[in-house]
Every structure is written in C-alpha cells, then in structure tokens.
Amino acid sequence: MHEFTMAVLVKNKYGVLNRVTSMFRRRRFNIRSLSVSETETDEFSRITVTSFGDDTEKRQLADQLSKLEDVCVVRELTAKDSVGFELLLIKIRNDPENRPAVRDTADSYGAETVDYTRDSVILKLTGSTRRISAFIDLMRDFSILEICRTGVASLERGNTTIRQVKI
Amino acid sequence: MILSGADIVVRTLIEQGCDVVFGYPGGQIIHVYDSLYKYRDELTHVLTAHEQGASHAADGYARTTGKVGVVIATSGPGATNLVTGIATAYLDSVPMVAITGNVLSSHLGSDSFQEIDITGITLPITKHNYVVGCVEELADTIREAFKIASSGRPGPVLIDIPKDIQMAKCDYEPQAPSVPDERRQADDNRIREAAECIATSERPFIYFGGGLISSNAEDELLELADLIDAPLGCSLMGISGIPTDHPRFLGMQGMHGHYASSMAMHRADCIISLGVRFNDRVTGNREKFAKNSKIIHIDVDSSELSKIISPAHAIRGDVKVSLRKLIDNLSPIKHEEWWKTVDSLREEEAKNTDKREGMTPFRIIETLNDYLKPETPIATDVGQHQMWAAQYLNFKSSRKFITSGGLGTMGFGMGAAIGAQMGTGEHAVLVTGDGSFGMTLQELSTAVSYKIPLVIVLLNNGVLGMVRQWQTLFFDKHYSNTILERKTDFVPLIKAFGGEGVRATSIEELKTSLEKAFSYEGPYLIECVIDKDEFVLPMLPPGGAIDDIIVKEDDLRA
Ligand SMILES: Cc1ncc(C[n+]2csc(CCOP(=O)(O)OP(=O)(O)O)c2C)c(N)n1
Ligand SMILES: [Mg+2]
Questions:
Q1: Which of A13, A48, A77 delimits the end of a domain?
Q2: Which residues contact B60 (CB under 8 A, 6 or more apart)?
Q3: Distance (Å) from CA B218 to ligand 2 centroid
Q4: What is the overall mean pLDDT for chain A?
Q5: Pair (A73, A87) in one structural domain
C-alpha cells in the first residue's frame, strides 16, 4: 500500500467532476484528496487526485478513469519526477498562554499570519502534503478551531506537459 | 436542409443505419413521435406495452445483430422505466442508444411535471450520457452516441433531449454512419510472451466469454484451439459462440457450469481467457480460483485485466486481432495425455446425466432442441430454467443465446425475444419461468400486435425455483415467499392476449405442441408443468471452491 497522485485532464464540460467522483464512489476507491482547476486552455480542466492502494489498485484507478468519455489523459505524478504543493489555512484559538509557542512553530515552518484577532489567529502555509500534515500535527498541541486545505496542485518537472501524453 | 430537432433525431437514426426502434410515447417526446409518423416508411417504430419491454427489445435486437439497438421514451416515468433495461445492457456490454425526452431546458432543475434527472440516474449504468444543450449539437451528439455504444467494449449510451430542442430548427446534412473506433491492437511483445507460455504448457484450456462474440472472433478461436490442441469452455455470455457439439467444447463454466468444463479448467496449467471478466459466479472463492495455472487474459477493456485476478499475461487488445497474432506465433502442438484426462472427465460427467423420463427439465430442453434451426434465436428469463437452457440447449451458430448474464434480470425474456425476432427475422424462442414471465408478460400484446413468430416454453414449477433451491440447500427449507401458488391459468391468458397456447403434460404432447407452435405466426405458449423441487446441477455453492462442487442429487438429499 502506498500513496500516489494522478493528474487527470478532462473536458471542461458541465458535470464532468460528477462523473469522475461518481465513478470513485461506485467502485469504492480510497480518495485522500481531490482538486479541480482551470488549465492553460478553456477546452480542459485538470483534476489532481491522491489515493492509496497497491499497484493493482493504482492501475484499476487509472484504467477506470480512462474509460470515462470526458477523460482525455491520465498521468501518474511521482514524487521523483514532479513537484506538488498544497495550501493550508488553519485557525487557532488566540490563547495568551500559548501565543509564543504558536508563533515559534509557525515561524519555524514559515507559516504566515493572515488574520489576527483577540480570540483567533489564521495561519497560512504552502508546502508538500507531508510538511502540511506535520505542521497540523504540531498545532494539535494548541486549540485548533478550523482547518481548510486545498489538496495537491502538481506538475511534472521539465518540459513535458500532460497534453503530450495520450491515453 | 432546415429541420426541427425532432426531425433531426429521426433523420440521424436513419442515417446511422437504424431500421427499427422500440419505444413508448409521451408528452415530452411527442415531437419526435410526430417525426416518426412523418418518416414511418423509412423507420419502423415498435410500440411495446412498457418501456422496460422496449429497452429489452432493443437489447435483444442488438445482441442478435451486433448493431446498435435503439429505444425511445418520454421523460419522468418513461425514462425511469428504462433503467432496468439499460443496466441489463450495461452489465452484458450490449451496444444501445436510449433517447429520452425531457421538459423545456428553462424548466430543468425545478421539479417540473414529469421531470427527472435521468442522466444522473443512469450515470453508473451507461458508457456515457448527454443532456443536449442546443439543437445545433443534436445530430452530432446522436452520431457520437452510436460511435461510443459500438466502440471498444460496447455498452449503452443515453441522450436526454429537452422539449424545446426537439422544437427548435437548424440545418441538417446527412452523413455516413459512424464507424466504431478502431479497436486497440495488442502489443507484439506481450503476444510473444503469451505464445511462449502456451507453447510450454502441457494442459492448456481456452475460456471465452461475451467479449469473444462482440469481437466476432469465433473462427480464430477454433483455429487456435485446433492449433494448440486445447479443450474449450465458456462463460454464460459465451454460449452459442461456437457450436455446442464441437468436439473440443466442454461447455459452460461457473456456479452451474458443466462438470467436465469446470474440472478441466481447474486442472489446466494455462488458461487462455478471451473476453471474460472473471465474475464471482464463475470464480467462486477468488482465493482458490485457478491456483495452479498461468492465466493469459485478453480483453479490449484494460480495466478488466487488473480487476479480479492478476493474470500472468495481461493483454489489452481486440480479441480477434490478438488471436490472429497469437496463431501466427505458434506452431501445432498435440496434447494426448491432457486429452485422456479431459475424456475421463467427460465420462465421469456422462455418468451423472439425468436419465429420468417424462417432463423433466432435461427432457423438455432436449425435445426443444429437435425443433431448432441453426438460425433460431433463443431468449431466456432468469432462474433455474435459464440455467437448464444454458446447459442443455444445442446451438449451431453465434449470437443465438440471448440471456441476461451480468444483471440477471427476471422479465428480460419477453422483450428480448421480440427484439431478437425482429433483428433476425427468424422464428424466435423464449424459455421462461412462471415467476419471470409474470414480470413482463404484458409484452404478449406487443408480440400479438406485430405478429411476432415466437414459441414460448414456460417451465412452470409453481415456485421461484432458483431461490427455492438455495432455501432448500442453505436455509433449512424455509420457503419464505417463493411458493407462488398463483391461480393464473396461462393458456387462457395468452388466448386473451390474442395468441395461442396449450399445456403439455408429456413429452409426446410437447412434441405435437412444438410442431404447431413453430408454424404459428404469433406468440404460441407451451406450458410445461414440472416438479417444484427439480435442482440445477452441478452447483458450486456461492463462495465455494471447485472441490465443493455438488454434482448429484444424492449428494444433496443425503
Ligand atoms: C427482477 C428480479 N427480481 C428478483 C430476482 C431474484 N431471482 C433470481 S431467480 C428467481 C426466481 C425465478 O423464478 P422463475 O422465473 O419462476 O424461474 P425458476 O427458477 O422457477 O425456473 C428470483 C426471484 C431477479 N433475478 N430478478
Ligand atoms: Mg418458477
């Protein structure tokens, strides 16, 4: 069992996300995160999905995605050959006792304060999924009020592009 | 030329080579029906009694002809009535285009009268579906739907057309019928590896399914079998793919498969699997399935190759082309020892044939066999009668066994038989059970109206026999809700519909009835009363392994 990331280029049409997620639900794939975004052209949208499983499950996921009519390209993005980041927003209780400790942790991760009130602080951090998870874990020592993370945005290194790869 | 959307629907169907469609009208599809009226000399519309019947008819038409079956229904309840038929076609990979009307585009999403989200409902049971957004896209959408339905692994596609789009006008120019995408070619290296595996095996076995038939690879199959001297077996969906009496053919695999076929596959050291998907009804206990053999798995749909089993050689590609390539990579081999084993399995199987006389399932189907032509299409419903038909019917040519394998849809038979008859122009047969027949027998009216020559062999055991069999075996004979005890008198019933019928109480009577039935130009029902405790054997209990196979009734009653 391991985690993997797939970039999926889909037609930019009404209801495509629904088709993709409906397939995930029906076939019971484990989805860790999923993000949808615009691309360099109006024609396509890009879905980035992280899931986990063994190699057979990974192949199944790619094969089942490729079978959907609106899916144009499915590409695995490996840690070695791609860069991937997520964005985290985390709201913490602004507790005078913990203030310095929160500040220290945030600083050592390079998290930015984007909202500050008497009762709460929102920190922003971008980084790899692992780094973000580690940061959240540290923040559990304090009082977390809310978390929102975007899921991975990922591109292959070098000059290859997803549209050069045909399924 | 400038046409209305409704006219474009019909003109595009004609353009795509469609000669008959099945359906049922209603308010949101009324414009298309007006166009069907206008073009009635070019396209026949068959009005069924229920949309489900129409969907199964389109399915039966597609299975027998290999063409795309077309069904049309109105919005809301008309559309939802198609769901079982679409799902049946999806699970058996049958090319179908379903067209539904819907409310005005501007009313979509507001729960208007008879509005239903049919594309949402059918998302998981279609290859693809559409809501047509404007009349300019209509013709191309229909063309694309035909292409998708018939390309690669076939399947159903649904097109939902809001009423305003049927009324809007735009330019339409006819085009040539869509051709399916070229089927993916297997990789040559993979083929060579598989050929190597076959060449070094001592006990090869070829196992084929519906994918072999949809790839039209029947001839290549037999050529390979001769070349490598292998026995053959098939899944329920593969039946009729090759002649039943072919000397290499051992019969069906699976829960109620033929003994010699199941045992031979179990003992094989190399299983060449063609257009099959290793359903749980075939593998039984997945862990123990084919433990000692190398599996070569060829399918156009690569997702099948990593779904259930992990084959030693997974080959993504069209079955026909792959077989041709395999054959080119192999030289003739003989397997005399292996055939001694196979023959001894056959002898063992022969010992267990049902030798009873009288109205037993075996004798009834055996008698029916004598009246079949090589071209006769035979549809079934679902239950014990379906398994007996699969086990005992004698087929001479491909695409003649029309059965719901993947979904196991009771009520499939009547519609499917009508569609199969219209597709082939042959006198068709339906083998049904009292439970299944009760689900869709209203289609008798369709068969009468359209003078469908159809022989209906009803195996009336008074029970939901297949479920009863399980209750006998696994539920201490608690016959919960499987005893029908209905007062339905089937012979007067079919007469009331305008057909003919008779009850046969002996094999002699059955023969004379079949004689009459095959010369009757309409639906002719022969009710065969059989015992409620007949068993379908052999039986591999659900989740069991090959060693758990039950072959004789004595094993059960003990
Ligand atoms: C629509 C539907 N409902 C329920 C079932 C479950 N089921 C499978 S076989 C069977 C009994 C079929 O009875 P009948 O048609 O009389 O055939 P028999 O087994 O008696 O030959 C039932 C209820 C099904 N396959 N399809
Ligand atoms: Mg019955």
A1: A77
A2: B69, B377, B379, B402, B415, B416, B417, B418, B419, B420, B421, B423
A3: 34
A4: 94
A5: no
Same structural domain, B267 and B294: yes
Q: Residue A37 pairs with which residues in a beta bridge?
A: A46
Whether residue B405 lies inside any domain: the answer is yes
Structure tokens at B318: 């069209």
pLDDT average per 10 residues of sequence, chain A (167 residues): 94 94 94 92 95 93 96 94 96 94 96 96 96 96 96 92 71
- Report, as an integer, the average pLDDT of B295-318: 92
Total domains present in chain A: 2
**Residues B119, A15: C-beta atoms closer than 8 Å:** yes
CATH number of domain containing B482: 3.40.50.970
Residue B550 belongs to a domain: no
In this structure, are B202 and B308 located in the same domain?
yes
Handedness of CA B493, B496, B500, B503 (dihedral sign): positive
> Considering only CB atoms, which chain B residues are within 8 Å of A67?
127, 301, 303
Task: With both helix axes pointing from N to C terminus, report the angle between B30-38 and B5-15 in degrees, rounded to the nearest 10.
Answer: 50
- How many domains does chain B fold into? 3
Residue B250 and residue B342 in contact, taking contact as beta carbons nearer than 8 Å: yes
Tell me, yes or no, if A69 comes closer than 8 A to chain B by beta carbon.
Answer: yes
Q: Which domain covers residue A43, as residue numbers?
A: 2-77
- Chain A residues inside the 8 Å CB shell of B305: 63
Are residues A6 and A73 both part of a single domain?
yes
Q: What is the mean pLDDT of residues B111-116?
A: 96
Can you say how many angstroms the Cα of residue B211 is from the centroid of all Cα atoms in its chain?
A: 11
Contact A63 B124 (CB under 8 A): no
Q: How many CB pairs under 8 A join A and B?
A: 30
Ligand nearest to the CA of B461: 2
How confident is the model over A47-58, as pLDDT tens digits? 999 999 999 999
Structural domain includes residue A159: no
Res B558 pLDDT > 90? no
Please write the tens of the pLDDT for every residue from B338-397.
999 999 999 999 998 899 999 999 999 999 999 999 999 999 999 999 999 999 999 999
Compute how many other C-beta atoms are within 10 angstroms of the C-beta atom of residue A115: 11
Which structural domain, as residue segments, surrounds residue B75? Answer: 2-171
pTM (global) more than 0.90: yes
A64 interface with B at CB cutoff 8 Å: yes
- The residues of B annotated as belonging to the active site are 51, 113-114, 163, 466
For residue B230, the domain's CATH number is: 3.40.50.1220
